[in-house]
Amino acid sequence: MLVRTAYRCRAYPTPEQTRILNRTFGCVRLVWNKTLDERSRRYHSEGVRTSYRQADAALTELKRTEEFAFLSEVSCVPLQQALRHQQTALQNFFTGRARYPRFKPRTNRQTAHFTRSAFRLRAGVLTLAKIATPLRFVWSFDDTDMTSLAPTMVVICREPDDRWYVTFAVDTKAIAPLVPTGQAIGVDLGLAEFAVTSRGERIVAPERLERRARNLARYQRQLARCQRGSMNRRRARAKVARAHRKVRDARQDFLHRTTTTLVRSADMIAVEDLNVSGMVRNRRLSRAISNAGWSEFRRQLEYKCERAGRTLVVIDRWYPSSKTCSACGHRLTELALSARHWTCPSCRARHDRDLNAAKNILAAGRAVARGDSGDACGADVGRQGPPLPRSAVKQEVRAARYSP
Ligand SMILES: [Zn+2]
Hints:
Layout: E1 2-12, H1 15-46, H2 52-64, H3 76-94, E2 110-115, E3 119-122, E4 125-128, E5 136-137, E6 153-158, E7 164-173, E8 184-189, E9 195-197, E10 202-203, H4 207-225, H5 231-265, E11 268-272, H6 276-281, H7 287-308, E12 311-315, E13 341-343, E14 350-352, H8 353-370, E15 375-376, E16 379-380, E17 398-401
Parallel strand pairs: 8-11, 11-12
Antiparallel strand pairs: 1-5, 1-7, 2-6, 3-4, 6-7, 8-9, 9-10, 12-17, 13-14, 15-16
Helix pairs in contact: 1-3, 4-5, 5-7
Bound molecules: zinc ion.
């Protein structure tokens, strides 16, 4: 089985390379925005969807025009990759999994994707198409031999704080599975903390992350007050970019430590699907931690479980994990968002809201892993409640990875 791994390193382009890469980013942005614009226009005025083939043909046409001939000065691969990404983004939109793709502004993170035909990596020396000299980067993964790396893709990225990165995407053989623990665990998105497990552990975002998120919010407010085009605004934007990076680094660090511990501790991990009510519930956590954090948490759990031969079960977002008594299965019709504790009217068990939910998620996860989607400890695992909105069609109970 192949697993995709990515190695991200700091890159240090020369002034000449910076110039070419910035130009490449500009062309990627132009192709993305122009294609998206044309697509949206066709879709809204004529109700016609544009295929990848059509978009690609339009790009070829564009390059032939005098006005846009400069598009041929950069490698064509990142431009084509941009079209591919847009295609995927639109497919995700049409299947209800994502919002409509947006235009790419100049101030965001800039990326260019180079597939195999557009880069060369020999003995740790990286050269990109249309750039004569090798790109310098710093390899910081001591346990991986850079010289034997055979990436399928190289991504060049310029962050808003002007740091450069190169990411090597590699398909590797899955590493040896972890030794079974005989344990299973349920994880609920906490109300006051990041998450609560069925063992009663409360996973709290570190104070450092909270502090950095608060700093970021403060710099963003400062930026909003600055006048457009002013020097102060540029300075404020640089501060926001730096604060963003600090939040991201701290969040990644926290999430990696959390997911690694979870994957080590249990053979089966059950989580609730990323859900809107969860977002609402978590309004007390700063957005930097809850929104982005929860989907990244899922992503890490998915690939770490896959690598380690663990089972991850994702429970349907309509499963009433909070309102069901984990002791007797009684289901409340209503449970206020503010209620941290409640007593089951049927068996008189006293519940901590989040712990009870985590226990139910674990029970539902066990039922899915066993293969019966029916009654799990008195609670239905299947879909409950109102008819599914379009966006939830793909969100029914599923075992992301189920090994019997
Ligand atoms: Zn009960």
